[in-house]
Automatic annotation (TrEMBL):
InterPro entries: Alpha/beta_knot_MTases, PUA-like_sf, RsmE, RsmE_MTase_dom, RsmE_PUA-like, tRNA_m1G_MTases_N. Pfam families: Methyltrans_RNA, PUA_4. One of its GO terms (biological process) is rRNA base methylation. Its EC number is 2.1.1.193. GO terms for cellular component: cytoplasm. Residues 20-67 form the Ribosomal RNA small subunit methyltransferase E PUA-like domain. This is Ribosomal RNA small subunit methyltransferase E. GO terms for molecular function: rRNA (uridine-N3-)-methyltransferase activity. Belongs to the RNA methyltransferase RsmE family. It catalyses: uridine(1498) in 16S rRNA + S-adenosyl-L-methionine = N(3)-methyluridine(1498) in 16S rRNA + S-adenosyl-L-homocysteine + H(+). It comes from Ferrimonas aestuarii. It comes from the Bacteria. Residues 74-236 form the Ribosomal RNA small subunit methyltransferase E methyltransferase domain. Specifically methylates the N3 position of the uracil ring of uridine 1498 (m3U1498) in 16S rRNA. Acts on the fully assembled 30S ribosomal subunit. The lineage of its organism: Bacteria, Pseudomonadati, Pseudomonadota, Gammaproteobacteria, Alteromonadales.
Amino acid sequence: MRVPRIYQPGDLIVGSQRLLDEDGANHVGRVLRMQEGQALELFNGDGNQYPAEIISASKKQVEVKVLDQQRVDNESPLDLHLGQVISRGDKMEFTIQKSVELGVNTITPLWSERCGVKLQGDRLDKKLAQWQKIAIAACEQCGRNRVPLIRPVMKLQQWMTEATDATKLNLHPRAHYSIQTLPEPMTKARLLIGPEGGLSPEEIQAGRDAEFVDILLGPRVLRTETASLTAITALQTRFGDLG
């Protein structure tokens, strides 16, 4: 049986005992129904994993002892920042989950002219917190020990003009270049994925003015959630650690 991985913020000190936070205790005590003496693997985003043992467990409270600290580096050599225009329904959650599994380091949700999602105030704050939890859960599942950051929502134009030394890429169905024709080496990239209705002509031109390179994935038009994951996979295969 695979040892469950649980994210715990804060310092994890070998030999110390600590209570799991509410989310961790609920998952271990209520969902998995684990008992005293069983093994866990903790991580806090510092790049290490921490084997631990359950000291006591109930449905509301779980105490563990940290047994060891192990450096496990399974991050891609490609530092990939995804700028994703917010998509409807559960598509955004799906994109975040799978992007984290594929090795994305940073995700910035974006507003654009044709973005069909309306979020503000408390609803937006709750959605951002939910997206960060999805990223954490994806790390628990896939074995990553660094948690990608879900940044606050930004306007597309603002994100495109941020200072960066990364290669800037924008998917475009009529682009002349593909991921296979991009020059090597590439260690940092910003990938822009538009909404279901696509970027407006003005936004596409603004991207070019901001030195984004239009790239083509193939002859078929892909949905936004398909496009993002396909592009990430292609970039990780060419410049990262897939394949």
